[in-house]
Amino acid sequence: MAKTSLKVKASRPPKYKTRAYNRCQLCGRPKAVYRKFQICRLCFRKLASNGQIPGLVKASW
To answer: Which residue range forms the structural domain that includes residue 1?
Structure first.
């Protein structure tokens, strides 16, 4: 879980646009964030397994 201060810092507009970075909207993780969903791979896997992401089906063969 990320610090609340880092979540707030990431949500503010940066002084220079190259300083902007993505954070997971659910847990605040700064790495491995999918741009399309704005969540990290860990939260994505959990939500996909529970069927909470519409149109997404876990592959099994």
So the answer is: 1-8+21-53
